[in-house]
Every structure is written in structure tokens, then in C-alpha cells.
Amino acid sequence: MATLTARLVGGPTAVLEYAGLRWLTDPSLSPPGEYEGGLVKTTAPALDVTAIEPIDVVLLSHDQHSDNLDPGGRELLPRAGRVLTTVEGARRLGGNATGLEPWSSVEVERPEGPPVTVTAVPAQHGPEGCEPVTGPVIGFLLGGPGLDTVYVSGDNASLEVVSAIAARAGAIDVAVVFAGAVQEAHLFDGAYLTLSSERAAEAAKLLGVRAVVPVHFEGWTHFTQGAEALRAAFAGNGVTDRLALAEPGAAVSV
């Protein structure tokens, strides 16, 4: 039985239906154009904001990069039930934002059943030692009694981080993975800032999940690997059956 439905809005943004609640990953909701930091968005959101809302919880891996939180996304935040993000991000955003250090948790009430526990987990937005440049980023684990455990990676480039999360968290059922093999020539000699397609497939094996839902692989010029690269990498690693790839605007249930 499917326990999570993910509808891809575009870039890192997806509406997740899980545990009777509506969750939104890193809101990138503005039209195409150039945004802060010189980042260029090439496609419009596949869903209008009226089709996205209402949102109970925004899972915001970080607020400092415009491809993860653009002006349209910022406009939505105050209308969400709550926003979970980094400590520094919550300080900047204020309002309904709660900051989480890695491995700290909060509980989110839901209409029926015990609350969902949301645990922040580490994310490394580039090669080792990148944080002074790229800033702090977190991922999330969602779970609770009678619920599958869902991992939302945020902008993470490190398989070592994935391995550490798997070792500490125990069984994880579904992963929402930020892919795209992001590269910026002026940063870290072009090292990946998020998982490549090959690393995303390897992460599926490290985590032991039954399904991987990729996001963050289309819609911005600094995303260098898209849907075809993901299909090829998962096939090459023998885990095609775990790839739940949604077209923009469409949903997958896992």
C-alpha cells in the first residue's frame, strides 16, 4: 500500500501527501528568470499556487539559495501551518519558522493518529569543508508509530552523509532525493553540490529504501543531469524498480 504521494512542482519543489498532511519541499514558485546569486530559472512551476495550497508543513532545507527558496516561495511561507528549516534560516525568516539542528526533532500533529516526528538530519552542500561557502543545510526524516519512514535529503552531495544517516536512523522506507548534479564552475573546481544521478542510485542501495522520488533535477541552468541521466544511472546500478520519477505536474505514489 502506498504511504506517500509526491507531486512534482519543479526544481526542488514537491507536494508530499503523507500521514494525512500536506508537506512542501523547498518552495521554488517564481516564474523563469535570473535570481539572486545569478541563478537562472528556465521553467515555470508546473502547478499554480492554488493547486499547491493549503500546506501544513514546509520542509525547507535552507533559505540562502534562490533555487531552494525564491520570491514566490517566500510569499507562501507565512500561509503554511509551519516552516521547518535550519537554525540560521529560522532566525532570518521569523514568523512561523522553527530552526532545527541536525538530529533534533519536533512533533507535528495530524488529524488522526499520533503525531509525526520530524527529525533534522545532516546535509553537505558540496565537497568536504563546503559549509563556510555554501552555508548550513539540513535534510529531514519523517516517521511515527504505524508510519513508514521518509527521508528528504535536501541539498546533499555526500554519500558518506547518506551512509551515516542510514546507520543512525535504522530502516528507511522512502527517500525524496535532491539530485541534478549541481555544478558551479567558480565553486570547488566544479565539484558536485548535490547528488549526481549515479550517486542517487548508490544512495538508494545504501539506504535500502523501496522507492526513491527524485526532485531538484530540472528547471535551473546549474542542474547538469536530468531525468534521462537518472533513468540510466538507476538501470546501470540494477535499481530501476526503486526509481519513482514524476513528470512536472504529475504525481507518483510509493
Compact summary:
21% of the residues lie in helices and 26% in strands. The protein is built from 7 helices and 15 strands.
Please give the alpha-carbon distance between the first and last residues.
8 Å
Q: State the shape.
A: globular
- Total strand segments: 15
Number of helices: 7
Strand content: 25-35%
What value does the average pLDDT take?
A: 96
Low-confidence parts: none
Helical content class: 10-25%
Q: What is the N-to-C succession of helices and strands?
A: EEEEEHEHEHEEEHEEHEHEHE
Give the spatial strand order of the biggest sheet: 8-7-6-3-2-1-15
The value of Rg in angstroms is: 16 Å
Structural class: alpha/beta
Main sheet attributes: strand count, strand direction, barrel closure: 7 strands, mixed
Overview of the molecule:
By secondary structure, the protein is an alpha/beta fold. The protein has helices at residues 49-52, 71-76, 87-93, 131-134, 159-169, 197-207, 227-236, and strands at 4-10, 13-18, 21-25, 33-35, 39-41, 57-59, 82-85, 97-99, 105-108, 116-122, 138-143, 150-152, 174-178, 211-215, 251-253. Strands 8-7-6-3-2-1-15 form a seven-stranded mixed beta sheet, covered by helices on one side. It has a six-stranded mixed beta sheet with strand order 9-10-11-12-13-14, covered by helices on one side. It is globular, with a radius of gyration of 16 Å.
